[in-house]
Write a structure and sequence with these properties.
Number of strands: 0
Pfam families: 23S_rRNA_IVP
Organism: Luteimonas soli
Helix content: over 70%
Number of helices: 4
CATH superfamily: 23S rRNA-intervening sequence
CATH class: Mainly Alpha
InterPro entries: 23S_rRNA-intervening_sequence, 23S_rRNA_IVS_sf
Strand content: under 5%
Number of domains: 1
Protein name: Four helix bundle protein
Largest sheet: none
């Protein structure tokens, strides 16, 4: 029997996105102080945006609104992945720090796309 989703907190994708934020914040602790208002700040905001938009979309009254916020979450995830790769290329993150974040991001992206596909199937045909 499928689990009933009463709150965004019941969504596995939201829980994994929260874990991703924690991974990002821990990795950013090693960044240079002069990046605090640059890449570090942007990286934090984009990572926090992923679970935030999942939660906000879930609270919206229509499926179309929910899908729009899940799309924003996917965009934030892509933004965060870009910042992850930039950080790696600049030498701020080594492979050991990059890999768990990249793997988590890939998994969350798949979960978001699956959720979106499921919700799109519930919409009336145009």
């Amino acid at each position: 029997m499928a689990e009933v989703v009463k709150s965004f907190r019941d969504l596995q994708v939201w829980r994994e996105a929260i874990d991703l934020v924690e991974l990002v914040y821990r990795a950013l602790a090693t960044f240079p102080a002069d990046e605090r208002f640059g890449l570090t700040s942007q990286f934090r905001r984009s990572s926090v945006s992923v679970p935030s938009n999942i939660a906000e979309g879930h609270a919206r009254p229509t499926t179309r609104d929910y899908l729009r916020f899940l799309g924003i979450s996917l965009g934030s995830l892509a933004e965060m992945e870009t910042q992850l790769l930039i950080s790696h290329r600049l030498g701020y993150l080594d492979d050991a720090a990059l890999d768990p974040i990249a793997q988590s991001s890939t998994r969350i992206g798949r979960m978001l796309r699956t959720l979106m596909k499921s919700l799109q199937a519930k919409l009336p045909a145009p």
